Description:
This protein is an alpha+beta fold. It has helices at 14-24, 37-42, 78-82, 85-90, 92-100, 104-109, 112-118, 125-131, 149-152, 228-232, 241-254, 265-288; strands at residues 7-9, 28-31, 50-53, 63-65, 69-73, 135-140, 143-148, 153-155, 158-159, 166-173, 179-187, 194-204, 210-218, 225-226.
Amino acid sequence: MTPKDFEYFVPSSVNEAISLLSKYGDEAKALAGGQSLLLLMKLRLAEPKYLVDLKKIQGLSYIKEDSEVLSIGAMTRHADIESSDIIARKWPILFDTAKAIGHTQIRNRGTIGGSLCHADPSADWLPAMLVQDAEFIVSGKDGTRSVNAHEFFIGAFSTVLNSQELMTEIRIPSPKNGTVGSYLKLSMGPGDFAIVSVAIQMTFGDDDICQDVALALGGVNEMPFRSAEAEDALRGKHIDGNAVLAAAEGAFKSVSPISDLRASADYRKRMTRVFTKRAIEQALKRKKQ
Ligand SMILES: Cc1cc2nc3c(=O)[nH]c(=O)nc-3n(C[C@H](O)[C@H](O)[C@H](O)COP(=O)(O)OP(=O)(O)OC[C@H]3O[C@@H](n4cnc5c(N)ncnc54)[C@H](O)[C@@H]3O)c2cc1C
């Protein structure tokens, strides 16, 4: 199928894009990499009358860090994150996540901002943002606001963004010394969305005790979430094999999985246990490196 007719704009600044979105309201859509939106338009599940393409706006694609925060422009492509030296050096969760998304072609076009604003519950960036306590910078005609990842996602394909707002930047606090992390996903095959995904970040003190932990599960429930049961099994503990198994069991107990074409609820639940264990082990391996 082909999309319904639409009017196409290519603004050269964020302000111009916001003016267009404000003018046309719910009838307009921002276009980033087009990897989700164009598909929906071809299927006629989205029928915007006005498309506001962000590709010519300078300064929305970058990865930079200072001592406190990593900043990623919303139009930064998954592939740019995957190949960034900054990410490879210090941000293993982001590296794992970018690498796990779709095929090379998808990673070359799709953007982190587009993925977050689309809010597919099985998308890889969502759990990674939850465990790293990311902040999203959002601009609209009334100014700029910062929204924490925990408040940004309302439900499947739904966020707090209004139709006149743009996400411009993702900010992730720098991890403390002694922090390790990983992201792992089970899918039907390369290039497919998550059946189960696990993001974990742990911070160890000099005594080798896990002082802080965040563990998020994606693809299993209606929306990605942090598993308090899994985190409680790790926080304040020396992480040996038993602690890892207890965390995997905690994750298993914390899910209320969905069934869909990709997997049954029962399979998702059992794989949650397996992939939580593996993700923690992958993070611990990095601690030793
Ligand atoms: C075959 C295939 C396989 C895929 N596999 C995976 C996978 O394994 N894992 C995964 O996570 N994803 C996967 N994806 C999705 C992919 O990651 C997309 O890149 C992503 O969902 C959307 O990013 P985009 O830049 O293409 O956004 P678009 O498709 O251009 O936009 C998506 C939505 O976000 C809005 N939007 C975009 N940018 C902004 C912004 N800056 N501010 C406000 N609103 C904005 C748009 O209006 C639209 O509603 C796959 C896609 C395909 C087609």
